Structure formats: structure tokens, C-alpha cells
Sequence to fold (362 residues):
Amino acid sequence: MNSLCCDRARERTHRATIHAYSRHFREQMPSIHNNKSTVTPTSVPSLESLLATLSKIPPLEPTAQALLDRARSILTSGPPLSMNVELADGEELPIAMHTLNQGAVWACLLGGGANPDLEDRVLEEAREEEPDDIEMHNRIRKALTPEAKCLWFLCRKFFFSLNVAEKDGESYQYTVYGDCYHHHMYMGRLFMLDTDYHAALTRARMPRALEVYSNEITHIARTPKGLWGWGDSGYGQLGFKSSGFVDPTRLTFPNCPKVAEHEASLPPWEKHRVVTDVSMERWQTFILTPVGTVMAGNKANWFIGEAERGNRRLFTPVAVPTGFVPDHIMHAWNSAVILSMGDRQVISGESWKGRLGLGHVE
Fold:
């Protein structure tokens, strides 16, 4: 072993023998250090001498003996590795948390309270956006504590999983006075924090997401089991009206028979194919599908016509010429929308300052 591995082996052996002593004698192992001594040891015991010393210990109580045997194993075979483990032919990795793939390790640690924001970026961005909102800053500090960062350093696999998730994952943050929303997604698992509703990063209870569309604090995920929406739906932009924060909810299309029929015809784990694109702006949601475009939200009557009172908040087909199935959408902040099918376009919404070129500004 190199010097670093030797040091680690000594440290782990020391911990194992302390626990073995406590198990056998049912008391804490007394310290053998002389606190009054100013002499610094010139050498440390070799691994061979430690092993010889441990071998002289008589049999112990079973649980204590198991710990002592573990200490001997560390000295002879080295400490267990969490990564880059060489396996013999036919040998398999042990069933343990550190042998899971990095996505599962990352999700387990976040679910257990680990803080993935080692550089405090969530707080810094919130402070840049709203420097005077001290109460919100404190809620972020309480949710993402410095102590919870330590979990990533329990072994190399944990820290590796965090680094890969930071590199390959996706994150989103929106801050407005009084509230900060943040989410981080890796390998389809999404954890979110809304300082008005969550005390910690919280797993989004939905199938693993393939893609997430966001606008301010309204979000839609495309998953193999269909579309799921959460956040703000105060204008019905998720296909229903609700006050406050909405937990992840399966989106349905009872007022869009063609879309509902097409989704039902897809295999159980391929419902994501019902969507070709999603656009969200200014409390409006447009969903493009292979059988037409549907929308819900603010000023819906501009795009779907006058709907019955009970259906005004449901996703409803956009009124377009027969046979017109858009494959692209341009959606402006002022509710101007251009739907394209090849080289054909349909335009609706607000013609602010005549920018739609229709000869009027309505």
C-alpha cells in the first residue's frame, strides 16, 4: 500500500478496535495519550506490527469479535473501496448504497437531507435578485445548511455522484420578492425548493422526467407516463385553476378528445410521445401534439374561442384551419403567438404596436 492507503488503513483499524472494545467491555475505551507530554512520536507502527498485536488478542464477545476481524481484514486486504473495485471472474459488487449508479446515489443522499449546493449558489443568486429580502435568505439558509454538505464526503462515490450531477444535470431558479423557487434534476429525478412551501429540497413525486419546461414558477415535465405539472396555476395554465403551490399533478385532456385518444393509444411507458413541444409565457401554456395544438391559461378565448364556463380552465384545442397541425411555435411575452406548419403560419394574440403586420393593434 502507498502511504495514503496505509494512513487510511490505520485510521479505520483504530476506529474498529475502539468499537470492538466498547462492544466487549460495554464501556468507552480509555485514552492512552499523555496530554502532558510534549514529545512528538518519531514513527508510527507498521501495518505488520499492528496485525501482530491484534492477533494476540483472545476471542471476544461475538459482536466485538466481528469488529476485530474487520480491523484485521483492513490491515491484510486494505480498506473497502467505494469506486474502481476490481472484481474476479464471477464476482459481483456487494449490495450496498455505494454500488448503486450515481443517479440513484445522488437521489438517495438528497432524499436524506444532503445539501448539494456546496458553493451556496442558490443563496447568492437570490441575494443578487432580491438583496433586501432577509427573511427569504434565512429560509434558504435553513433549508440548505452547511452541515448537510458533509454527507457528500463520506466516500469517493458520493462525491463523484455530486460532481457528475452538477456537470450533467439541469437546474432552474426563479426569484421574486418574498419567494425563491429552485430545482435540480439529474437522470430524471427532480428535487425542488420553494421557500414559501418547502422546508428542504423535496423530491417531485412523479415518474422520471425526460424534459422540463418552466416559466417563472409554473413547470411541466414530459415523462414516459405523460405530462406532469406543478407550481403556479392561478390562471389555469396547468389545465386547472388552483391557488397556492400545486404539487406535481398528472395533466389530462378531457376537453381535447383527439389528444386524449392519441395518448391512450400509446404504450404504457411511451406517453411522452403525445407531446412534440411545450411553450409557456405570461400564464399561458401551449402544447403541440401530433394531432393538433391545445392551450390553457390567461386570455384563452383569444386562441380557443368562447368556451363553456365549466371548461374555461381545461386544455382546449386551438382554433386553426382544418388539417393545420403546427410543428413549431413562437410565443411572445405579450401573448402574441405564431403557429407554423412547414411554410404556413397562423397568428393570434395581441398585435402590440402593430407588430403582427395585420394592419391594426388589437
Residues 188 and 209 are 4 Å apart (CA to CA). Residues 97-203 form one domain.
